[in-house]
Write a structure and sequence with these properties.
The chain has about 350 residues and is mainly α. It has 17 helices and five strands. Strands 1-3-2 form a three-stranded mixed sheet, sandwiched between helices.
């Protein structure tokens, strides 16, 4: 389930290819993975472009991603190790499995992948939100357990666990003290979290062996942002918005009719093709739009799409411009509105 959810999230995200960001995440992640000592995990590390999302996640099996919005708060390798140690701890402690057992998801026969992505209940059990990039918390007890184990992991990997307190102080400052009261949240409050971290740091320091290496600063948001990434993010917003708009049979008929008229195709063909591809109407409309605007047939584009090729590369490889495709998607959304 974790692997399938990971593929879906990457498909619905804009991946950064910034060499400094990727190197930092992979180096820190791999050091923590080594001390985690789970040779059965197939570790993967990606950076997702989203300047607004200050977070990261690790899914069962070792699938890890960091959002670019975390970089200014983490500041350097050691700050990144605090977050990755915490997230890897969730995966090692099987917190997702605990939540699935508690909620009965495992035996419920729920479909893993729906028309517009992974089943929301499974995403929540994995610690992820139903919408792309929205991280939902585990319970307070699981968060605290991951904090404690995360400190030990980062210390074993050669990062000073005392950095964790500084990171959470920066996180609180970033939030402007606007986090909800602890009794309304499934995360520990900042004050309680830092208090617990200070209590656990002496234990973690037993595993820490200081070195002479200096921590490398992470790239800034300005370095991480490019016109190409912004353009792809704008297209993804339209795709995801259309997926969310088509939530009932009436809306489905409406979008099928719009596409049929625009493409001069039989509505039943559009209905069947979308089902066969097993994707949301937003993704299907974008693939059809690229085929119409570019030079390749739908099936050829769909093969690359299923391989995980980015929308930017899909457009470049198949003779379309991402700006034209974004306008195509916006026009469909406009027609679909009541």
């Amino acid at each position: 389930m974790g692997e399938e959810a990971y593929r879906q999230i990457l498909r619905q995200s804009v991946l950064s290819d910034n060499s400094r960001a990727l190197r930092a995440v992979r180096e820190v992640g791999e050091r923590i993975a080594r001390v985690a000592d789970r040779p059965d995990y197939r570790w993967e590390f990606h950076v997702i472009y989203d300047p607004e999302m200050v977070n990261a996640f690790a899914l069962p099996g070792g699938k890890v991603a960091v959002y670019t919005g975390l970089f200014p708060v983490a500041q350097d390798d050691a700050g990144l190790a605090v977050v990755l140690g915490h997230e890897v701890a969730h995966a090692l402690l099987r917190h997702a499995g605990e939540r699935m057992s508690q909620s009965g998801i495992v035996g419920a026969g729920l479909a893993l992948v729906g028309a517009s992505g992974v089943n929301p209940q499974i995403l929540q059990a994995l610690g992820l939100g139903a919408s792309v990039g929205l991280i939902l918390p585990f319970s307070r007890s699981q968060e605290s357990e991951a904090d404690r184990v995360g400190l030990i992991l980062m210390a074993k990997a050669g990062y000073d666990p005392r950095v964790a307190v500084e990171l959470w102080e920066r996180m609180e400052k970033k939030e402007g003290g606007q986090s909800p009261p602890e009794f309304l949240s499934t995360h520990p409050g900042y004050q309680r979290r830092t208090q617990q971290l200070k209590e656990w740091i002496p234990e973690a320091l037993k595993y820490y062996r200081p070195t002479n290496e200096s921590w490398e600063a992470l790239p800034s948001l300005q370095e991480l942002e490019t016109p190409a990434l912004r353009a792809e993010a704008e297209l993804l917003k339209r795709i995801q918005a259309l997926n969310q708009q088509v939530t009932n049979p009436q809306r489905e008929r409406a979008v099928v009719e719009i596409l049929a008229y625009r493409l001069r195709l039989d509505p039943s063909l559009i209905f069947r093709e979308r089902q066969q591809l097993g994707i949301g109407y937003g993704d299907y409309a974008a693939l059809r739009g690229l085929s119409s605007l570019g030079r390749s047939p739908l099936r050829q584009i769909a093969v690359d799409y299923q391989k995980g090729v980015s929308w930017l590369d899909l457009c470049q490889n198949h003779g379309g411009r991402i700006s034209d495709l974004t306008r195509w998607m916006e026009d469909i959304r406009r027609e679909l509105r009541p």
